[in-house]
Design a protein that fits this description.
Largest sheet of chain A: none
CATH superfamily of the largest domain in chain B: MetI-like
Distance between the termini of chain B: 5 Å
Radius of gyration of chain A: 22 Å
Order of helices and strands of chain A: HHHHHHHHHHHHH
GO cellular component, one term (chain B): plasma membrane
Oligomer: heterodimer
Number of helices of chain A: 13
Strand content of chain B: under 5%
CATH topology of one domain in chain A: MetI-like fold
Radius of gyration of chain B: 24 Å
CATH architecture of one domain in chain A: Orthogonal Bundle
Shape of chain B: globular
Organism (chain B): Palleronia aestuarii
Largest interface: A-B, 42 and 50 residues
CATH superfamily of one domain in chain A: MetI-like
CATH class of one domain in chain A: Mainly Alpha
Largest sheet of chain B: none
Number of domains of chain B: 2
CATH class of the largest domain in chain B: Mainly Alpha
Strand content of chain A: under 5%
Shape of chain A: elongated
Distance between the termini of chain A: 30 Å
Helix content of chain B: over 70%
Pfam families (chain B): BPD_transp_1, BPD_transp_1_N
Subcellular location (chain B): Cell membrane
CATH architecture of the largest domain in chain B: Orthogonal Bundle
Number of helices of chain B: 13
Family (chain B): Belongs to the binding-protein-dependent transport system permease family.
CATH topology of the largest domain in chain B: MetI-like fold
Chain lengths: ~280, ~325
């Protein structure tokens, strides 16, 4: 178990950028989990006298146009970032993995399913998400579904490719010739070998889910405005950019650094991956 | 070749057919009666009935689809509820802005992404490569609207070099000078996509440089710069060209946000406003047109790919 863990930790520790990225993600995770203890003020505490204050000791990131503490809101924003990331990744994996594996195992079904995935992929991703928001209505869960649908397609494609290749591996054929059932082969041979491609895909999806959610928030079609998400903070304060440009700096930096750190981690994990699968994961 | 082209066009047509069903279903998946939703609470029953009649909502669903698809094939995408004009007119009004924005953005992407990708590849493993690859990943992680806001703050509000928002047509007073309105938006829009092309150029340069013909070229004593430009780059660009279809789709998506930040009168901003106005025919029309464009561009990319690389079996 420890040896297995080292396979993942060694490349991260040996690269300074990856170590920094990992550290930042731990900070974001702590912010999300312990927000009430880290944030000095409640995120929605309005203080009209102290509005649009520049950063100082009492308000590290300054205050917004309601006098709310930007630092506290940025800390609470990590919660939604985590929720969106975990939600989108779960949805993409829970739908993409079965679609990809079933398509690889049953070619007739696969032709239909992968064709449907192609159709979904012919929609520009944000328009697809916006269309779904129109149907489902605005909200955090619906934002997760809308963004998740975009990554269902890429995940299903990758899983399909990996599963097709695994299916013709000699040990899978050997197992089949010894009378192993399909379910057993999926559980014992296909899923375990898929862990590292899926881990890479999960970190990229987690990263791009942040950007997608921020875009939806910014257009006013994502999380409801009362939720302190980084995207909502940018949307609300954008008209104050000339008066208080620092207000947009911190939430924006949180989005950038979170997405960047996840991308760095995804890259490191991909470099560690079986070279036969690496080319399926993009460059 | 002929068989391949016909097969490929057939596949694109099949995808379009399936996509058209998805887009058509869209209006029927919206909870509640779409007509009452579109007209709002103040609508009289007569107005609702009239719009239902106009949209043909009382017909059986497959008849509705055939009528809708038939009209779309003849260039009629229905009428906008808000503007009371044909949807094609609404799209045409935004087309100039969106097309020019996409073209200028593509120029940035090619001018930045490809040369920098080549530089990273020929300096593979050095700090230059690591720095550029890190920069690419950073650019790909930045929300375009956030970059846009700071570009406005620095270059429009601060230095006053460029206009901050809007775009007057180049066909009305001002002429080509109006393109300066698209400069900041195109830079914001280009950033993440140029990063993608940079990474792709680098990766495919490295792939090609491991090929036998490159080793042969070097062994023959051809100058290294010539090997890079004539042997590696030419072949590496094939993979980059094939990514343009994908890049185009990404541009359309992100243009929705960019046009909103810079208040550009393009198709993307029209979509966002139509969502807020519940002007469903416009949303449907825009999505149908962009899917068509995407399929056509991918078709052209695929065909040109096979023309450019004779090794690819047709």
């Amino acid at each position: 178990m420890l040896g297995y863990l080292r396979v993942w930790t060694r490349p991260v520790v040996s690269r300074p950028l990856a170590a920094l990225a990992g550290l930042f993600l731990i900070v974001v995770l702590c912010c999300a989990l312990f927000a009430p203890w880290i944030a000095p003020y409640p995120p929605d505490q309005i203080d009209p006298v102290n509005r649009l204050l520049p950063p100082d000791a009492a308000h590290l990131f300054g205050t917004d146009h309601y006098g709310r503490d930007t630092f506290s809101r940025a800390v609470y924003g990590a919660r939604l970032a985590l929720l969106i990331g975990v939600g989108v990744v779960s949805f993409a994996l829970a739908s993409g993995v079965p679609i990809g594996i079933l398509s690889a195992l049953y070619p007739m079904l696969g032709r239909v399913l992968m064709r449907m995935v192609d159709v979904l992929m012919s929609f520009p991703s944000l328009l697809l998400a916006l269309g779904l928001i129109v149907i489902l209505g605005q909200g955090v869960l619906n934002a997760i579904l809308a963004i998740g649908l975009i990554y269902l397609t890429t995940t299903a494609r990758i899983v399909y490719g990996v599963a097709l290749r695994l299916r013709s591996e000699p040990y899978v054929e050997a197992a089949r010739s010894m009378g192993a059932g399909t379910l057993w082969i999926v559980r014992r041979h296909i899923l375990p070998n898929m862990v590292s491609p899926l881990l890479v895909q999960a970190s990229f999806v987690f990263a791009f889910a942040q950007l997608g959610a921020a875009a939806l928030d910014f257009l006013g079609l994502g999380a409801p405005p009362e939720i302190p998400s980084w995207g909502n903070m940018l949307a609300e304060e954008r008209i104050y950019i000339t008066r208080a440009s620092w207000l947009l700096l911190w939430p924006g930096l949180m989005i950038v650094l979170t997405a960047f750190s996840l991308n760095v981690m995804g890259d490191v994990l991909r470099d560690r991956m079986d070279p036969r699968f690496r080319e399926m994961m993009g460059k | 070749m002929g068989r391949y082209v016909i097969g490929r066009i057939g596949a694109a047509a099949a995808t379009l057919f399936a996509a058209s069903i998805v887009i058509f279903s869209f209006i029927h998946l919206i909870p509640g009666d779409p007509v009452s939703v579109m007209l709002g609470d103040a609508a009289t029953p007569e107005q609702v009935a009239a719009l239902r009649e106009r949209m043909g909502l009382d017909e059986p669903i497959w008849v509705q689809y055939l009528v809708w698809a038939g009209n779309a094939l003849q260039g009629d995408l229905g009428r906008s509820i808000f503007f009371e004009t044909p949807v094609t007119q609404v799209i045409a009004d935004g087309a100039e802005t969106s097309i020019l924005l996409a073209l200028i953005t593509m120029i940035w992407i090619v001018l930045f992404g490809i040369p920098v990708g080549i530089l990273a590849a020929i300096r593979q493993g050095t700090w230059i490569d690591q720095g550029l690859s890190g920069l690419a990943m950073l650019l790909a992680s930045v929300p375009t609207f956030w970059v846009g806001l700071y570009l406005i703050l620095i270059f429009a509000a601060g230095l006053g070099w460029f206009p901050s928002s809007g775009y007057p047509s180049i066909f009305e007073g001002g002429g080509l000078a109006n393109l300066q309105y698209l400069l900041l938006p195109s830079i914001a829009l280009a950033a993440p996509n140029a990063a993608l092309i940079l990474r792709l150029t680098r990766a495919s340069m490295l792939d090609v440089s491991r090929e036998d013909f490159v080793r042969t070229a070097r062994a023959k004593g051809i100058r290294p710069s010539r090997v890079v430009l004539r042997h590696i780059l030419r072949n590496a660009l094939l993979a980059v060209v094939s990514a343009f279809g994908f890049t185009f789709a990404a541009l359309i998506s992100e243009a929705v946000v960019t046009e909103t930040v810079f208040a550009l009168p393009g198709i993307g901003r029209t979509v966002v406003q139509s969502i807020l106005r519940r002007d469903y025919p416009v949303i449907q029309g825009v999505i149908l047109v962009t899917v068509c464009l995407y399929l056509v561009i991918n078709l052209l990319v695929d065909l040109s790919y096979r023309l450019l690389d004779p090794r690819v079996e047709l």
